UniProtKB/TrEMBL annotation:
<dbReference type="GO" id="GO:0016705">
    <property type="term" value="F:oxidoreductase activity, acting on paired donors, with incorporation or reduction of molecular oxygen"/>
</dbReference>
<keyword id="KW-0349">Heme</keyword>
<dbReference type="GO" id="GO:0020037">
    <property type="term" value="F:heme binding"/>
</dbReference>
<keyword id="KW-0472">Membrane</keyword>
<dbReference type="InterPro" id="IPR002403">
    <property type="entry name" value="Cyt_P450_E_grp-IV"/>
</dbReference>
<feature type="binding site" description="axial binding residue">
    <location>
        <position position="476"/>
    </location>
    <ligand>
        <name>heme</name>
    </ligand>
</feature>
<dbReference type="InterPro" id="IPR053007">
    <property type="entry name" value="CYP450_monoxygenase_sec-met"/>
</dbReference>
<keyword id="KW-0479">Metal-binding</keyword>
<keyword id="KW-0408">Iron</keyword>
<comment type="similarity">
    <text>Belongs to the cytochrome P450 family.</text>
</comment>
<keyword id="KW-1133">Transmembrane helix</keyword>
<feature type="transmembrane region" description="Helical">
    <location>
        <begin position="16"/>
        <end position="33"/>
    </location>
</feature>
<dbReference type="Pfam" id="PF00067">
    <property type="entry name" value="p450"/>
</dbReference>
<dbReference type="InterPro" id="IPR001128">
    <property type="entry name" value="Cyt_P450"/>
</dbReference>
<dbReference type="GO" id="GO:0004497">
    <property type="term" value="F:monooxygenase activity"/>
</dbReference>
<protein>
    <recommendedName>
        <fullName>Cytochrome P450</fullName>
    </recommendedName>
</protein>
<feature type="transmembrane region" description="Helical">
    <location>
        <begin position="302"/>
        <end position="324"/>
    </location>
</feature>
Length: 548
């Protein structure tokens, strides 16, 4: 299962010389071509960070290092807003909370939906008539909220906000995952691969809670693993020419998933009992109101599958990993979770976890979740500049951003900045305790917002520092759903089980992160981890249940 194979960046043996010569020739050629690609610079723009390889140097580094490239640039240059040029294009990188906030404020000129349109065309393969429908008023050009994208945004914001529909959805996903958990280690210790187990069972439970029992993940055993192949190929699929040739694995996975989702639509799987309000509303909007075909609606639904699981699944894995790799933190969080379990009546094996209490009264547990997201969930936020615009940060600094460029908020860099203290690079489960307590005091009956601004140890708000759920207009509408489902799954492990590594008896050791970190979603583990899982003493026969 070791993923880190290959030559570690060196061409083997005698090929090394040819490799170096080829690189030198390519660099020379590119330097001759550079004038053709020169990007005219306006003195009002942020500083340009150049690359030693002209034209495509930054692109090569992104391909080689993923989102870690931005961390390298931060170490080297300490710039909080700067420009990278690739070919004739510009990417502005905002790497401080102050600039993140300024970018979010200029949402009219720095557009989210233009990025969505590109994805719908190039990744989710919407046909021309559907693109026409989606493009209509996509950025509120006519001053109203009419049009598929804006109406969808508003619909998701309301159906996923704390309330009855969200409770139904959370109840449904937690109930879906219960049978798998209740089967675990029932007849004594059991070996599992922890990442595989969580990925497989949590994905299927999430998709079933949203799309009902006749969904493709439930009906076809190849769909869940293929989804992750598709997910891993997202970027190359969106950029590479001839994806069927150059991104073959991702291309085939995408095709199979589209076909399976089309089958779901053709069989009216969305009409079955157990389908969430969210899916019903999407059918009503896309098909009934705007006339999408079943095929195009199916492709669009796959984009929602990304929203639903590509971040929650790895977050649940890392949260469980962080908790179990520190026995003291495990003991403290266990105490909090134990207080959310119903008291058994004699002879009863059923124990009920109160999911609402998990969110409102387990401050260390919810702090650990946000800390997990700070470290593993530095999801970078991208916008397209629709017109020349001047952005100004809270310190009064201003820069010009040019039309047609991209802007990226480097959440992964912001999440490692000095503002987090000298332990910024380490996991500190208590880091968000001030937040959790403060929210509990001020909003005792409401559900704490997992996207609330970070408060430092003195309780001072540091706006736009915690970016895992984005911010501003496009803050993640699924964050409350995500918080409850992740806490619910992790609580079952904490309350009911002990975990040790097969290769590290008596303790659990986390696997490393993937070598090439994506900037699109929460980081995945670099390899799976074989664990021995057994029932916690005193909970051997427990059948778990949930109440909201
Ligand atoms: C740990 C879990 C999650 C993380 C870290 C996460 C992260 C994010 C981030 C960073 C954004 C903002 C993107 C941007 O501004 O460019 C976003 C938006 C979005 N998320 Fe999530 N998300 C999570 C879970 C979910 C879930 C469970 C759903 C749905 C069931 C969901 C649905 C969406 C949607 C639809 C948007 C687009 C919002 C819009 O149109 O303005 N997310 N998410």
């Amino acid at each position: 299962m070791e993923p880190f194979t290959g030559t570690g960046g060196h061409a083997p043996g005698g090929n090394a010389l040819y490799y170096c010569i080829a690189l030198a020739v390519a660099a020379l050629l590119l330097s001759y071509l550079q004038p053709l690609f020169s990007v005219p610079k306006d003195g009002r723009e942020p500083p340009v960070l150049s690359s030693s390889i002209p034209i495509v140097g930054h692109l090569i580094q992104f391909i080689r290092k993923g989102s870690d490239y931005l961390v390298d640039l931060e170490r080297q240059y300490h710039q909080s807003l700067y420009v990278l040029t690739v070919g004739k294009g510009r990417i502005y990188i905002a790497a401080s909370p102050e600039w993140a906030q300024a970018i979010h404020k200029s949402y009219r000129s720095l557009q989210f939906n233009t990025i969505v349109l590109n994805a719908m065309k190039n990744i989710f393969l919407m046909d021309e008539p559907s693109m026409k429908l989606i493009e209509h008023n996509s950025n509120g050009e006519d001053g109203t909220r009419n049009g598929i994208l804006l109406e969808m945004h508003d619909m998701l914001g309301s159906v996923l906000a704390p309330g009855r529909h969200l409770d139904d959805l959370n109840h449904s996903i937690l109930n879906e995952v219960l049978p798998d958990v209740n089967k675990l280690a029932r007849n004594g210790p059991q070996h599992i691969q922890l990442w595989w187990w969580i990925r497989h069972h949590f994905s299927i439970a999430s998709i079933t809670a949203i799309w009902g029992p006749k969904n493709p993940f439930m009906l076809h055993s190849d769909i869940e693993p293929l989804f992750w192949d598709f997910e891993a190929a997202m970027l190359p699929l969106s950029m590479a020419p001839l994806p069927w040739l150059f991104v073959r694995k991702g291309h085939l996975a995408r095709k199979r998933i589209f076909d399976a989702w089309e089958e779901y639509m053709q069989n009216s799987g969305y009409d079955e009992p157990g389908v969430s309000q969210l899916v019903k509303n999407r059918v009503a909007l896309n098909m009934e109101k705007y006339g999408f075909t079943k095929r195009m609606h199916a492709y669009g639904e796959v984009s929602m599958v990304f929203g639903a699981i590509s971040n929650t699944v790895p977050t649940a894995f890392w949260l469980i990993s962080y908790i179990f790799s520190d026995p003291n933190i495990l003991a403290e969080i266990r105490q909090e979770v134990d207080a959310c379990i119903s008291t058994p009546t004699s002879g009863e094996t059923k124990r009920i976890l109160n999911a609402t209490k998990l969110r409102t009264s387990c401050h260390l547990f919810t702090s650990a979740l946000r800390e997990t997201l700070r470290i593993a969930g530095g999801v970078n936020i991208t916008r397209q500049v629709s017109e020349d615009v001047t952005v100004t940060n809270s310190a009064g600094e201003s820069y010009l951003l040019k039309k047609d460029a991209m802007v990226q908020i480097a959440s992964n860099v912001i999440h490692q900045r000095e503002l987090w203290g000298s332990d910024a690079h380490e996991f500190n489960a208590r880091r968000f305790m001030q937040n959790e307590k403060q929210q509990a005091d001020s909003t005792s009956t409401k559900i704490p917002d997992p996207a609330a601004p970070y408060r430092d140890a003195q309780g001072k708000v540091v706006s736009a520092a915690f970016r895992s759920f984005g911010g501003g207009n496009n803050v993640c509408p699924g964050r409350h759903f995500a918080q409850t489902e992740i806490l619910g799954l992790a609580a079952l492990f904490v309350a009911g089980f002990e975990i040790e590594g097969v290769r590290t008896p008596g303790r659990y050791q986390m696997p490393p992160t993937e070598a090439l970190k994506s900037s699109l979603a929460v980081i995945k583990p670099g390899r799976d981890v074989d664990v021995k899982i057994r029932r916690r003493a005193g909970f051997e026969d427990v059948e778990w249940g949930f109440k909201m």
